[in-house]
Amino acid sequence: MDFPSMTFHTNNVTEFILFGLTQNEETQKICFVLFLSFYLIIVLGNLLIVITIIFSTHLTSPMYYFLSYLSFVDICYSSVTAPKMIADFLLERKTISFIGCIAQLFGVHFLGCTEIFILTVMAYDRYIAICKPLHYTTIMTRRICGQMVAASWVGGFLHSLVQTLLTTQLPFCGPNEIDHYFCDVHPLLKLACTDTYIVGVIVVANSGMIALSCFLILVVSYIVILASLRSHSSEGRRKALSTCASHVTVVILFFGPCTFTYIRPSSNFSEDKTVALFYTVITPMLNPLIYTLRNSEMKNAIKKLWSRKMFSTEKTNM
């Protein structure tokens, strides 16, 4: 079987019709209110974390540096799919242009893969902090942290570029109905009017193996961390476990559904779009709660920032 040439075909399809999460009108009205609330929580919650870390003089460790970027990526990541999904709940005919569909696909994979890499880098940071505390400041310098974040962005971009090029070189002659609430590779492969077996294999190898390999790296790193905690004091173990618990929770919530979706070939599983909600909406919404409720430093920094803001406002009004 010949590998498809990387050329752009002239498509008969100029737009796609999205089925969305549900076709029931009453359910759509409920979903509109529900997911609009979720999206506001995502934006405001993650924005609060970014602002707190930027303006706090105490949250200067690499962990918070990475967390600020994770929160920023969460805002951007959800913004690629959530606003369109929310608006579609009010529309009878849910359409997206071909260019808009490809742009959405690129954004989802670019930001999603970047988040995967940032979560992996955060695990490495915790490994160095707990297993090599004496060398932590010399290893995790500001420059190294910046290079890790930059590498995460570049890695996400390259991954997304491959996915987008593989999809755009396929011919789409119709039908143009996507049983999903956003444009993704697997639903689009089903609509291509050509054999997509080879492309499907590459997609799984690209997306699935990135998610799976990063997940395995995270699992191994935390096994090593847990093993090293045996030599720590009870107080040291408690603090280390508390710090790692938030990250482990986010990793499970994000990597589980993401790996389930992309580690296997294209399928007709109707639950795919429900599973996708976890890594596009639910996890970005829960991240601020997970990282603030379990982190006393973050909670104190938010309180101080809010108190400072209120004090300056009262002083201005006097």
UniProtKB/TrEMBL annotation:
Gene: LOC117667167
GO CC terms, sorted: plasma membrane
Species the sequence originates in: Pantherophis guttatus
Record family assignment: Belongs to the G-protein coupled receptor 1 family.
Membrane-protein topology: Multi-pass membrane protein
Gene3D superfamilies: Rhodopsin 7-helix transmembrane proteins
Residue ranges of the TM segments: 32-56, 102-124, 144-162, 197-229, 241-263, 275-293
Pfam families referenced in this protein's UniProt entry, alphabetically: 7tm_4
InterPro entries for this protein: GPCR_Rhodpsn, GPCR_Rhodpsn_7TM, Olfact_rcpt, Olfactory_Receptors
Signal recorded as keyword: no
Gene Ontology MF term list: G protein-coupled receptor activity; olfactory receptor activity
Name this polypeptide is given: Olfactory receptor
UniProt KW keywords: Cell membrane, G-protein coupled receptor, Membrane, Olfaction, Receptor, Sensory transduction, Transducer, Transmembrane, Transmembrane helix
Every G-protein coupled receptors family 1 profile domain range: 45-291
Subcellular location: Cell membrane; Membrane
